[in-house]
Amino acid sequence: MATRAVSGPRLDIPTSQLPTLPGVPMSEPFHAIPSFYGTETPLRFEADVHDCEVIGRIPSELEGTLYRAGPDTQFPTLAADNIVNGDGMVSSFDFRDGHVAFKCRYVKTERFLKERAARGRLYGKYRNQHTDAAETHGTDRDNTGNTTAFFHAGRLLALREDSYPHQIDPDTLETLPKWDFAGQLKGMSLTAHPKIDPVTGEWWSYGFYCRGTLDADMALQVIDAKGKVVREEFFQSPYAGLAHDFGVTREHVIFAVMPLTTDAARIAAGGDFYAYDPDLPSLWGIMRRDATVDTIRWFKLHECVSGHIMNAYTDGDMVHIDATISKGSAFPFFNDVHGNKVDPAQGIPLVTRLSFDLSSAEDKVTRTPFPGAMGEMPRCDPRYAMAAYRWGFIKTRNGIGRLDWKTRELAEHVIPGGSSQEPVFVPRRADSAEGDGFLLSLVNKPAEGCAELYVLDAQHMEAPPLARVRLPFKQPMAFHGNFVPRAERP
Ligand SMILES: [Fe+2]
Questions:
Q1: Residue 413 annotated as binding?
Q2: Is 229 in a helix, a strand, or coil?
Q3: I want to staple 126 with a disulfide (CB 3.0 to 4.6 A). Which of 85, 244, 404, 485 is the partner?
């Protein structure tokens, strides 16, 4: 089976007039695919805005760079394509002396370069090599680097959960060779949701499908503050599912496996990599940090699907995990195991505290939804990661939300006519109180054809933004980013 490439000049050919081959996924013009309409239409260009227009005033404490990563499909897409299959685009907002410079560059992966040379699409569906053109075989097809831009041990990395990260030059955003941890890592994958221990500087991670097969092989990985792999242990999940995010506390690690399963026959027939199985529970595997992986205790929760985790902490025998939870699949771009579209209403996420009682023999888990906290892309003050904390932040349907876990109140910055992206919290100063600082969130303004990076005072959510950093073009949905203070750059 091969994917048919449609090059740029043929973009205006109506889909109905393109020749079809049975069983061959067709490339389509972006405008023919609903999931790539409007603000989600890929940019397909790299950009530098040396001095961004700033409406308001950049706080003097904000000195450093916000790095983000997201998908930006380079060439016309497939009818069955989805956002997570896009080519990686890394962007930066560099704050310096009250000025802001923007830059974005594609992650120059092997896949990207091959398609650019061919001037058309060669690679097919998300994590399905059976939908690729023959000349791609044996190449690194999945490592788009499109999920997280992340800084650790002096390296800026573009992560993607099925692969090793690409190194990115933190100044130019040009792509450097993939980082293989100097050959120290045996597994083939790392999560794109790394957890940094604010006390030790360690990078806690895991890999799923880490041996390159569809078996339920997982690995726990710990990389020390200097970038050395100090721990790698292999184990198996009870089933081969989807593990996008996880939790780490000062005492425990929590592996979260969602009921979207893989199937070799489906994939070989050109189907999706994942399919949602509503009959399966989600799995929550908990182990002590100082124990070995053979001690993992797997809790099972029905009608409890998580997209992301805000934070986690241990209190005695209780392990609390604050996650976005929905009743059904939170991944609407994958069908169910019967081939049907999933019900989007069942996938609406609500931030919920899952409290696991490790003293209970009957796997007791309490679910406590946060009132009104409907949203995604949860973050916290990174200095309070892995410990009891008060403030959390989410992207809401109407804007940007702040959760106060002490009072259980949600404060929201409403953005009429705009759509926000992941809110990244930046402490005002290294020694500021928890939650005293700034929220950075990219806001698309479709009516104005532009995007603005909002800078909010996290303690005054209802107030107008301190500053809006305006770009003269929109920004498609990026996934995740991190702010790197200037003092932490090499
Ligand atoms: Fe994510």
A1: no
A2: strand
A3: 85
